[in-house]
Write a structure and sequence with these properties.
The chain is built from 13 helices and 14 strands. It is an alpha/beta fold. Strands 3, 4, 5, 13 and 14 form a five-stranded parallel β-sheet that branches. The chain has a four-stranded mixed β-sheet with strand order 6-7-10-9, with helices on both faces. Strands 8-11-12 form a three-stranded mixed β-sheet. InterPro entries: CE4, Glyco_hydro/deAcase_b/a-brl. One of its GO terms (biological process) is carbohydrate metabolic process. Keywords: Signal.
């Protein structure tokens, strides 16, 4: 299977995803990826490059464009964080990866790209993937071809250099019964994560593209979080992730409240926001809007495409406004690089980015940047923030609500300025 079919259409998976509020890649066939331009020296950091392994990845120093997290001052209103993230990120002829990189740059945003490891493995080497509870070479989202891998590697390289995060969406995207990730053990998850890392760390060997530029990061250190396929298997995944040094998980469903840690990881799951025209709320993911509009058909009634996209856009904006003018809880949004229902969800997401990311006191960030900020805060401050319900602003105002004396900041984190006599 080539890049044309990197995300497999499966009615079985789609039905499971719809029933479980899951976010799944079950898209339509794709055209072959474009031939990427030859990388230039300007794409690499100025610091010395230390190749890792076969040169698929490299240590190039600290990641550029990462803001230094600062602790809130007493009485300071929290910024409004918004995280845009992408499951199974890859570049093909739609060029959605490169497009949204530009959208992010134009709107002062960074994002998280959850890479599927099999998107870095060519189809003729598929037997190198040995999925838990499945036969070798099996994948419900297919594999890639060399042109698609080269194009994806280029976008990953540039995205990281621009301050974006590269996470993982694992490999074969198995959902439901009969070996789906919800049935995996802790050891199964550790094996899957190890293979996902390995395909990223050996893409040059597996493709023969030895003259290509490396990915400019050590993936063992870069990888600190993930979203599970179909939002299944979270419990055992989190146990494995904690043992492997991950810092966050975004595989569940939350209300719009401030995050807390779960099994030692920050739980920054997607959230429920208003669904215009309905009495129930909707998960902040393009796939879930789609299944509640056109069912399992990825290309429903064309006459409804604009309306459906507007519905998603307006729902996300209502969720944003509820937090921005309320408890300031981070807004977590998940997407896929897909043209479902004529690409209307991609248009909706872009309009949300353009609307919110340039507002005062708003920070559109990656999950890495969000958890860095959370780790820098006084635990008592976060505990107080978590007392605010969905959309609830402090009655006494932010200055009074967060005016208590903070605990000392962690080593290396800037604290509030000392009081003057």
């Amino acid at each position: 299977m080539t890049a044309t079919h990197r995300i497999a259409a499966s009615s079985v998976i789609a039905a499971v995803c719809a029933a479980s509020l899951a976010g799944c890649a079950t898209g339509t066939p794709r055209q072959e990826a474009p031939d990427p331009q030859k990388p230039t020296p300007a794409q690499a950091p100025k610091s010395a490059v230390r190749l890792i392994g076969d040169g698929s990845t490299a240590y190039t120093g600290a990641q550029p464009h990462l803001p230094r997290p600062e602790r809130l001052r007493p009485g300071q209103k929290p910024p409004q964080f918004v995280v845009f993230s992408w499951d199974g990120a890859g570049e093909d002829s739609q060029k959605l990866f490169s497009h949204f990189r530009k959208v992010a740059k134009d709107n002062n945003a960074t994002m998280t790209y959850f890479l599927s490891g099999v998107y870095m493995l060519p189809d003729d080497k598929r037997d190198r993937y040995r999925p838990p509870q499945h036969s070798p070479g099996r994948s419900d989202i297919g594999f890639n071809d060399r042109r698609g891998i080269a194009a994806t590697a280029k976008q990953l390289r540039l995205a990281w250099l621009e301050g974006n995060e590269i996470g993982t969406h694992f490999n074969g995207h198995f959902c439901g019964s009969g070996g789906g990730v919800g049935e995996w053990s802790v050891e199964d998850w550790k094996d899957e994560i190890s293979q996902a890392k390995q395909f990223v760390k050996t893409w040059k060997t597996n493709t023969g593209l030895r003259d290509a530029s490396p990915l400019p990061f050590d993936y063992d250190k870069e990888l600190i979080g993930a979203r599970t396929p179909c939002l299944e298997g979270q419990r055992n995944f989190m146990k494995a992730a904690r043992d492997l040094g991950f810092r966050y998980d975004t595989s569940g469903v939350n209300d719009q409240v401030w995050p807390k840690k779960k099994q030692g990881l920050w739980d920054v799951s997607m959230q429920l926001v208003p669904f215009p025209g309905h009495s129930f709320e909707q998960l902040t993911m393009d796939y879930n809007f789609m299944v509640n509009q056109s069912g399992t058909k990825t290309q429903g009634n064309p006459a409804m495409h604009d309306f459906w996209g507007d519905q998603m856009r307006d729902g996300l904006l209502k969720g944003f406004s509820r937090a921005y003018h309320g408890n300031r809880a981070p807004l977590i949004i998940g997407n896929h690089f897909e043209s479902w229902n004529g690409g209307t969800y991609m248009r909706a997401v872009e309009e949300v980015i353009e609307t919110v990311c340039t507002k005062e006191e708003v920070r559109c960030v990656s999950f890495r940047q969000l958890v860095d900020w959370l780790d820098a805060q006084d635990p008592k401050t976060l505990e107080k923030l978590r007392t605010l319900q969905v959309g609830q602003a402090p009655k006494e105002g932010w200055a009074s609500f967060l005016s208590g004396r903070p605990a000392p900041a962690p080593k290396g984190v800037p604290g509030p300025p000392a009081a003057r006599g």
